[in-house]
Amino acid sequence: MIDGDVPERMQVAAFDEFGGPEVITLRKLPVPEVAADEVLIKVLSAGVGVWDVFERQGVLVPEGTEFPIVPGSDGAGTVVTVGSQVTGIAEGDLVYVSATTRPKGGFYAEYAVAKAEYVAKVPDGVPAEHAGALSTDALTALAGLDALGLPSNAWLLIFGASGGQGHLAVQLAKRQGLNVIAVASGPDGVALVTRLGADVSLDGHGDTAELLARIRDSAPDGVAGILAMAGGETLDRLTEALADGGAVAFAHGVRPEPSERPGVQVRAYDGVSNPRQLQRLNELIEAGPFVVHVAEKFPLGKVREAHQRLETSYLGKLLLTIA
């Protein structure tokens, strides 16, 4: 059932074949119907991430999806219709979503339907628009911290700390009482992670031997864990700073994967989206000021440019603005 104030058709960005950014076009599609366990959201913004590229290329397509495909697994907006079985969410609520399955389309659209279990109210302190770029990277960062399972006051090295997942991980790690060494990208990246609370901020573009020396100066007994948002020779060298029994956790998709070596545990992880994890995430976010750093915003009509921007260097997140 669709509320009477909701139009029958909506503008979306979608594609009918897999390929490059050029396959995405604007068109009008029907607003999806809402099942008993779903909500309909008037979309305010949608995050733009590498997983959208994988979907566009046909590499990572959600089960049940058919052409035309409306991408966008991250989004935020206002609830306009609530299914009959949904509790805890009401019309008018500002929410954000991690839509791991979305056979009725994603958030590159004026309206989107989501299962209520993947919907959470926008946490206090986060602008609703920026919340559109929050869920996937924040939940993945939280899963990475869980994979390491470090005790409070332990030293954590975050490699790739100024990226989409990394800058959120810095803040979540500090909320868990960890001491954070953030290896960021360039002077601007160092400035960002410093502002977000990193105890030690280092430029990953610097000399690797000097980086390693500074890490050892900060954590002379070694770091207990490394959270890797990127791979490569620099990361493999920095694993020398791990304490005995230390671990490297990396998100699936990081290439090259961190190298195994004696005395170092290497663990892969994926983001987890469920009501309990969303609740945990919101509790951590609301513990203090929290920033979703948006490098650049694009209107829906500039979606191709947004996907081209994904192929360049930037800090934090990219965002499509819909409303």
From TrEMBL:
<dbReference type="InterPro" id="IPR011032">
    <property type="entry name" value="GroES-like_sf"/>
</dbReference>
<dbReference type="Pfam" id="PF08240">
    <property type="entry name" value="ADH_N"/>
</dbReference>
<dbReference type="InterPro" id="IPR013149">
    <property type="entry name" value="ADH-like_C"/>
</dbReference>
<feature type="domain" description="Enoyl reductase (ER)">
    <location>
        <begin position="19"/>
        <end position="320"/>
    </location>
</feature>
<keyword id="KW-0560">Oxidoreductase</keyword>
<keyword id="KW-0521">NADP</keyword>
<dbReference type="Pfam" id="PF00107">
    <property type="entry name" value="ADH_zinc_N"/>
</dbReference>
<dbReference type="InterPro" id="IPR020843">
    <property type="entry name" value="ER"/>
</dbReference>
<dbReference type="GO" id="GO:0016651">
    <property type="term" value="F:oxidoreductase activity, acting on NAD(P)H"/>
</dbReference>
<protein>
    <submittedName>
        <fullName>NADP-dependent oxidoreductase</fullName>
        <ecNumber>1.-.-.-</ecNumber>
    </submittedName>
</protein>
<dbReference type="InterPro" id="IPR013154">
    <property type="entry name" value="ADH-like_N"/>
</dbReference>
<dbReference type="GO" id="GO:0070402">
    <property type="term" value="F:NADPH binding"/>
</dbReference>
<dbReference type="InterPro" id="IPR036291">
    <property type="entry name" value="NAD(P)-bd_dom_sf"/>
</dbReference>
